[in-house]
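Our example copied in:
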Amino acid sequence: MQNGLFRSPSWPRRMRRMTLPRLKRELKKTLPTLTSRKKKQHLIWWGVLTLVLGAAVFAGWRYYQMTAPERLFRQGLTAESEGAPERALSFYQSIQSRYGDSDRAPRALLRAGRLSRYDLRQDQQALLYFLRLEKQYPQSYLVEQAQRQAADLTKNRLREFSQAIVVYQRLLEREPEDADRIQYEIADCYFRLGNYAQARIEYETLLERFSGSVLRAEVLFRIGRAMLLERDYAGAREHFLVVSEEFPESPYAQEALFSLAGLFEVEERLPEALTAYRALKDYPHKDVLQRKIERLIQRMVKKERKSQ
């Protein structure tokens, strides 16, 4: 026979035969069993409810975490549009520090770099943002933009030409559409460093790799200038003549003719230099040309007086 309030079909008959004390004893035995069952049911329901609530809270937290970078990014854009670059920067920094694995993190770094460069005028900090993007997110489609910003900033603002060469070379490895322009920038950096021999090599590399480049006239002129500074006057003259004859419509044709006249001066062929200068009717810098002619005439007069 099993314990419980309704143990068997004969229970009602037994209840009629029970005395009051016996009934009380029987109820005392049965009630704990019922209470225990109810407690177990309550615990089960509370457990289920706790799991459901926990899952809902976790899902909400997870959703919040996933959408937080987007919200911060939009807040940054809003701050930019309101003319508050420092506040915008704080939002972008939060994305990078708290949600570095999100797809908004590279964009946040690029925006932070641009804000630092153009709005806050913090060139070194801007450079750090661009280089961090390149290092931490090498597969991002934004890397090329960051490299361009870093190279231009390093060369034209910070004037750290050696460092700029390194960044331009990494950019060149990505084979951008304007690879000839990137190669030109590398050569120009060497030129500004005073390394004319290496600059000439880089210019010549450009001509070999990109024979159809629109920069050809300028590059030939730059090679002539490098040779002139290296005192290779014959090589310089050759390149200046090529520019003036093959690219007569180019603005560098007039610069090449001006440099040819300068070569006559270097070689003490002053009358020929004067004739060459006076022939430059289309030279764009009239004031420079006029001063050059005046100084040359004075030099010729002094030289003639000394010879008398």
